[in-house]
Design brief:
The chain is α+β, with helices and mostly antiparallel strands. 24% of the residues lie in helices and 17% in strands. It has two helices and three strands, in the order ααβββ. Strand 2 and strand 3 form a beta hairpin.
């Protein structure tokens, strides 16, 4: 009887926590007739039919990301295609450095 009471208490606690938590985001992945061209451009017809994922939030949950990202999902039935637009307001200040690897 004690084991049953403990089990029911755990089930109740887990259920309560699950309903109290923020909902998990869900994205649909539409199937397109023709695969998008892999050319660095998102102006293909397939990308127009793709599911847009936005806005992106800060990882700590304090609001929207300062620099927004847009991601797009679609599939041709065999392959998952992911396209992204990564916005950066200070692009002129970015610099790449070459590093040596051993």
């Amino acid at each position: 009887m004690r084991a049953l009471a403990v089990t029911l208490a755990l089930i109740f606690a887990c259920t309560s926590l699950a309903f109290a938590a923020d909902p998990v985001p869900v994205a649909l992945c539409p199937q397109v007739d023709d695969a998008p061209a892999i050319d660095g451009s998102l102006e293909d017809t397939a990308w127009e039919q793709a599911e847009a994922l936005r806005p992106f939030e800060r990882h700590d949950g304090t609001g929207l990301a300062t620099e927004q990202t847009e991601a797009f999902l679609c599939s041709d039935g065999e392959t998952l295609f992911i396209g992204c637009v990564l916005h950066e307001s200070a692009m002129d200040n970015l610099a790449a450095e070459e590093t040596a690897y051993d």
